[in-house]
């Protein structure tokens, strides 16, 4: 036997031992530093299928000093193995949630601790597909957020399908001020039956939909709805009053100018995919939902219930448009100073809590809190949200805006006479 070959054979046990040590380095180190992460990974399908840390966390890393060498995990990382789910996710609104929050003018005025610290909007709006350049810019800015994706539902490092299938996985983001879908669903008949079946009060076979049943049919990760987040759509209604109200609402959202022509902000709305902008895309999503509802109900019943919610949006839009016109009239008559940053003669509904006066603050809540609760409550089969937390609050909002407007006009007239 050649001397070189003999030496190689003698070294093989040592090489094998060295490889084993290298493979165990992540686990042995992190079992001390972050043991819960290691336990999650050990309980995962990744571990069962011999998918180790370096499969996803690519990079030359061996200590706390060089942890920056690791490649940032994105949806594309998961897509290397889960390409079909990545493709579905890429077509849906969750893939654009980072874009949508960045499109809001008020987001950029938030404290860094809220925005970059994931204590505010970006705590949920961290989902999204980003280029390497965008991710690098985030790193340079000191932020490691805004580019995560699949782990919002499939929590690291167990990445459990069962967890992501549970409605509680949606609860973290879909609750609270402007979109309390968890509260609506869990207190609706759908949610109550589902949760009673989960705790054994009802048989496990009880028919009751979870969030995923309706919005992720057969596990499809393309999550979107017919009306979109803001319940605005194109083409506009053929009903003259509703059409006029829709135009006023779109003008206050900044996507139509005074003459009703599209503005640059419409391109932002398109990019963030927060509304259906043609009949075909609306009908496609509506037809999907009718098929889902028809698993338990008749198709006629499903269509009728969805049509009722559509009609409620029409009535909500009228209340909203009346309130917008009240404030626009104050601008026009010089009673209320319109901020120079507003591109049109209308109040900007996307300024949120940064609206500069109390009457505009009422309008902000009317739009983003109460209108949202009314139409979302209707679609989630929750009468209490549709009526008391939605419609009723909007009626009171409009009354308060009208009274405040009258008070401001009287004060303005008095001041002018002095």
Description:
- This protein has 418 residues and is an all-alpha fold.
- The chain contains 20 helices and no strands.
- The chain has 2 domains: 37-57 and 72-165, no CATH class; 166-170 and 177-417, Hydroxylamine Oxidoreductase, Chain A, domain 2.
- The chain has helices at residues 3-33, 35-42, 45-48, 53-56, 75-79, 83-91, 97-103, 112-115, 132-140, 161-165, 168-171, 181-186, 189-198, 211-215, 240-252, 264-272, 279-293, 299-332, 358-379, 383-417.
- Helix 18 (299-332) runs parallel beside helix 20.
- The chain is globular, with a radius of gyration of 27 Å.
- The chain starts with a helix and ends with a helix.
Task: Output the CATH class name of the largest domain.
Answer: Mainly Alpha
The total count of helices amounts to 20
Estimated share of beta-strand residues: under 5%
CATH homology superfamily name of the largest domain: Hydroxylamine Oxidoreductase, Chain A, domain 2
The profile of the biggest β sheet is: none
Number of strands: 0
Helix fraction, binned, reads 55-70%
What is the subunit organization of this protein? single chain
Q: Quickly give the structural class.
A: mainly alpha
Low-confidence stretches: 14-23, 141-147
- Taking all Cα atoms into account, the compactness measure Rg is 27 Å
CATH topology of the largest domain: Hydroxylamine Oxidoreductase, Chain A, domain 2
Structurally, how many domains make up the residues? Answer: 2
Q: What is the string of helix and strand elements?
A: HHHHHHHHHHHHHHHHHHHH
